[in-house]
Design a protein that fits this description.
The complex is a heterodimer of chains A (about 290) and B (about 325). Chain A is mainly α and about 290 residues long. Chain A has helices at about 1-45, 70-75, 80-110, 120-125, 135-145, 155-175, 180-190, 195-200, 205-225, 225-230, 240-250, 255-285. The longest helix of chain A has about 45 residues, at about 1-45. Chain A is flat, with a radius of gyration of 26 Å. Chain B is mainly α. Classes of the chains: A mainly alpha (about 290), B mainly alpha (about 325).
């Protein structure tokens, strides 16, 4: 009798647990669907032909899958993004490489080759990460004018390097803090200088931090709109975000082309995210400081 | 002397960065404050000291502002007044946006982390899906969200409104971001979409940072699973919540790209950062643009400086 009752209790509890599990998975799947909803809309709309791109059929799959919108968004006469994608590449590659290298050197010194007040210096640099860049934008454009800095993309590269110093330094500093002190001490015992130690002890184990930082910088520079819209006046030098906002902001642009253009402009960062998501996540966590 | 030889090179190596940040962060902030107190209002700069720009950003007489808002609401031509009326509207938008965005992303992120915490099949997949919006620019996201939240009526319906009609829940139709009262709340929806995954990742790390022995000990004492969360896990999450609030708050104060992508330049969706852009590019009112930028900085500093000091101090204690 008692064993049956016990058995029944266990079963009941187990059933309740399975039901909780089902609800949990349903909730997770529902949220995933909602999060992916914009992607569905983007894809479906971008593969419709001009004649099919009618709002009333907007949620339906295309009857005929067409590449017209993609072609138009890629290098169409009116809305082609190709030159702007090229601009973005010309911006993002040098800016990412240089700011990552700078961050590595700073992070090394501030964690492993410290000087008195290194923490204060770190704090001093770190604040730059949190400022609203609006608070420097007017003087920044002024200063570029006054020193006659080469117009367009070079200004943008410079700005992203300077304002990338805090985050890149932060990521590398936290990473280098995990290198065993013994390794550095051993190098010091061998009377290796700072650069020597960096080059032969620290740099060889830095690859993960380089990947994390480079992905972070690549993504945020590629996606930046604020700096670009304030700094680059010449439309021929616009990065892709500004060009995208310009073409899609106008109501005459067919919506299938708008959607293809938005996807096209996001592809590089999405590909990086899909391939290297793990590192992307680590960068995010570093950006949250203590997270 | 030997000491200097020990740490001198390090300081030297970091000094270019110190110099750049000194000039381009702190120096330019100072310069911006100076511009905000100037009379550089119409594309020409004079050297006078002028608080006029700020004067227009602070409501001198609250009653006056109410009158103005009432006039806007009824479609009358409002009387001119000393406070920049658009700015008051911007502040309302910013407040509503912040409340919906911060609470929405925080609750959503914590909820998702809570669901994923105890090990779920396909956790990696769910995490990747929830986090992916972080890889997309607000400009690109804005293109699709503007379409989803399009308020056009009748046959021209698109996006959610059309979907609601088709699902037979047409009563949910609304004006979204063009709603006079709740537009800013609708603008916060894509922001919640974009940031929830990030907050989830923070909370998930927080959940997993709670030592398993603590949970086990509470279970041994006969605590139910919910009580384990309430009394053991949640108290451990306070630092994470603080980080999340700071991150969301500072994004909210300066929100710009998303608003421009969805609403463009119109008063009904405008936020302070958008106003600043319009003032500089269209009105060439540099002093007032700089004044708004200074206020944005002040708002963020109040949030961030104590947090930074606290973080570095607790790091040193650790």
């Amino acid at each position: 009798m008692t064993t049956v009752a016990l058995d029944h209790g266990v079963k009941l509890r187990r059933r309740r647990r399975t039901r909780a599990q089902v609800v949990k998975y349903l909730a997770l799947a529902f949220v995933a669907l909602v999060v992916l909803l914009p992607v569905y809309v983007l894809l479906v709309a971008s593969f419709k032909s001009g004649t099919e791109a009618d709002p009333s059929r907007a949620w339906a799959l295309p009857e005929v899958w067409s590449l017209d919108a993609w072609r138009e968004a890629w290098n169409g006469e009116q809305y082609g993004l190709f030159p702007y994608l090229k601009n973005s590449l010309k911006l993002v590659i040098p800016a990412t490489l240089l700011s990552t290298m700078l961050g590595s050197l700073n992070g090394f010194v501030l964690s492993r080759w410290r000087f008195p007040g290194a923490d204060l210096v770190f704090l001093f640099l770190l604040f730059g990460m949190f400022i609203p860049y609006q608070a420097v934008m007017i003087p920044l454009t002024q200063i570029f004018l006054e020193v006659d800095f080469p117009e367009g993309l070079p200004r943008l590269v410079f700005a992203h390097i300077v304002y990338g110093i805090p985050i890149t330094t932060l990521i590398f500093r936290s990473y280098y803090a995990t290198i065993p002190e013994d390794l550095i001490e051993a190098a010091r015992m061998d009377r290796a200088g700072m650069l020597r130690t960096y080059w032969s002890v620290v740099l060889p184990v830095s690859a993960p931090a380089f990947v994390v930082t480079a992905i972070w910088q690549f993504t945020s520079i590629w996606n930046d709109f604020l700096f670009a819209v304030f700094i680059v006046d010449d439309p021929a030098q616009w990065p892709v975000t500004v060009a995208l906002n310009n073409t899609t902001g106008s109501f005459v642009t067919p919506y299938n082309v708008q959607m293809a253009a938005a996807l096209l402009a996001s592809l590089p960062t999405l590909i990086v995210y899909i391939l290297l998501g793990r590192y992307f996540m680590r960068g995010l966590m570093a950006g949250a400081l203590k997270g | 002397m030997r000491k200097i030889r020990r740490w001198g090179p390090g300081l030297l190596l970091v000094s270019p960065s110190i110099l750049l940040v000194s000039v381009f962060v702190y120096g330019l902030i100072g310069w911006n404050v100076k511009v905000s107190f100037s009379d550089w209002r119409q594309a020409q700069e004079t050297s006078g000291f002028d608080t006029g720009a700020y004067g227009e950003l602070f409501p001198g007489d609250a009653g006056q502002t109410d009158d103005f808002l009432r006039a806007v609401g009824t479609g009358d031509q409002p009387d001119s007044l000393s406070t920049d009326p658009a700015w008051i509207i911007d502040l309302h938008h910013a407040l509503l946006f912040t409340v919906v965005f911060v609470l929405g992303a925080l609750l959503m992120g914590a909820f998702l982390a809570f669901l994923l915490d105890k090990g779920v099949k396909g956790e990696g997949f769910f995490r990747a899906v929830y986090l992916f919006p972080m890889a997309v620019s607000f400009i690109a996201a804005g293109v699709v969200w503007r379409w989803l939240m399009n308020p056009a009526p009748g046959d021209r319906s698109t996006g959610f409104n059309l979907l609601f009609d088709k699902l037979g829940i047409g009563f949910l139709r609304n004006e979204w971001y063009l709603g006079l009262d709740w537009g800013a709340a609708a603008l916060a929806i894509p922001a919640v979409w974009a940031l929830s995954g990030y907050i989830m990742a923070l909370y998930l790390a927080g959940f997993r940072g709670v030592p398993e022995e603590l949970r086990e000990a509470a279970r041994m004492d006969g605590a139910s699973e919910w009580r384990v969360y309430r009394h053991v896990v949640f108290p451990h999450l306070r630092p994470v919540t603080l980080s999340a609030l700071i991150i969301l708050g500072h994004i909210s104060i300066k929100v710009f790209d998303l608003i421009v992508a969805i609403g463009g330049k119109q008063l009904i969706t405008e936020t302070p950062a958008v106003r600043m852009w319009i003032l500089i590019y269209d009105a060439r009112d540099y002093a007032k643009g700089a004044a708004i930028a200074t206020l944005l900085l002040l708002g963020i500093s109040v949030l961030v400086i104590p947090y930074l000091v606290y973080t570095v101090r607790s790091e040193r204690e650790a």
